[in-house]
Amino acid sequence: MNSHEDRQKTGLVFNVQKYSVHDGPGIRTIVFLKGCPLSCRWCSNPESQRHRPELAYNPGRCLTLNKCVRCLEVCMRNALIRKEDASLRIAREHCEGCHMPCADACPANSLLVYGRERSVDDVLAVVEQDEAFYARSSGGLTVSGGEPLFQGNFVTALLREARRRRYRTAVETCGMASAALVREVAPLLNYVLFDIKIMDSAAHKAQTGFANEQILKNFSILAEEFSDLPLMARTPVIPGFNDTAEAIAAIASFIAPYPRVTYELLPYHRLGTQKYHFLDRTPPMGNVTLDKNRMPRLQSVAEGILRARVQNLQQPKTPSS
Ligand code: SF4
Ligand code: SF4
């Protein structure tokens, strides 16, 4: 694929976030792609899950129909229903296939579209704006989601073109993709953030919709076949799912044979709750919260296993008799 072809490729992007310092080394621009094969109950980006544009409504920003009717004026499908308090209800069954002029007409950003088709060229024009920061901080572009590998053709074109322009590249992945795609994308990357949620495959399937064998296989491919590629494993610590010493120890033990792999625990948070409501969905986790007091213990379990790995590697080899 030549540069011209790659630059014209389009994908469904729901956000481009600048100045991130949490998603790979240095200062980074994060490109969020829409669509994910998993449906994790704790997902904090519900707007990322479905591979199609979605309309969201934030009633807190709405000027109300007492003062503004711009969205009603452009909606040709009678999909916006007036509620008693003069806010709106979206009759979503009417919105399918609409190009969502209501969001463009809204002066208050109360109606939002999650997911617009954007070209590689268009996305990289935004990434380019912070070139100076990447150079100074060893930062660059991180592709996230959703699952970035879900849009395989687009992410490959985006990463290939980014590398032509000499950006350092990273992905944040749940690991659910074909092995062939993982092998195709890996040479285009400088860094990988890879989620390992739990080793118990049945529990993984129950809470995410898929078993984890393919995910673990892809992790091993990256760790073994691309030994120069920095790889960070991450575990979102979820109450009632993997917030036990046993669950974390099992993951750390899986990672331990790979001395290059780093590991991070991410405590569950509920920051995405509001977005579920904006999309008229019920947050699957309800009001459950994580007992944060568990984190130091889980951290030390993981560190203990991974520290032993380092010590084992440093032990002088005993000559065989
Ligand atoms: S997306 Fe289209 S059909 Fe739905 S409310 Fe907006 S303008 Fe109406
Ligand atoms: S255009 Fe926006 S601010 Fe005005 S009524 Fe509609 S949603 Fe509310």
Based on secondary structure, the structural category is: alpha/beta
Query: Looking across the biggest beta sheet, what order are the strands in?
Result: 7-1-2-8-9-10-11-12
Largest sheet: 8 strands, mixed
Order of secondary-structure elements: HEEEHEEHEEHHEHEHEHHEHEHH
Summarize the structure.
By secondary structure, the chain is of the alpha/beta class.
Question: What is the strand and helix layout of this fold?
Answer:
Blueprint: H1 3-8, E1 10-20, E2 28-33, E3 54-57, H2 70-74, E4 80-82, E5 88-90, H3 101-105, E6 111-114, E7 116-119, H4 120-128, H5 131-137, E8 140-144, H6 152-164, E9 168-173, H7 179-185, E10 191-195, H8 201-208, H9 213-225, E11 231-237, H10 245-255, E12 262-267, H11 273-278, H12 294-314
Parallel strand pairs: 2-8, 8-9, 9-10, 10-11, 11-12
Antiparallel strand pairs: 1-2, 1-7, 3-6, 4-5
Bound molecules: iron/sulfur cluster (SF4) (2 copies).
Structure description:
There is one protein chain. A hairpin with a 5-residue loop joins strand 4 (80-82) and strand 5 (88-90). Strands 7-1-2-8-9-10-11-12 form an 8-stranded mixed β-sheet. Strands 3-6 form a two-stranded antiparallel ribbon. The protein is globular and about 75 Å long. The protein folds into 2 domains: 3-50 and 117-314, TIM Barrel, CATH 3.20.20.70; 54-114, Alpha-Beta Plaits (2-Layer Sandwich), CATH 3.30.70. Helix 10 (245-255) runs parallel beside helix 12. With 321 residues, it is α/β, with parallel strands linked by helices. The mean pLDDT is 94. It contains 12 helices and 12 strands. One iron/sulfur cluster binds at residues 55, 74-75, 77, 79-80, 90, 94-95, 98, 100-102.
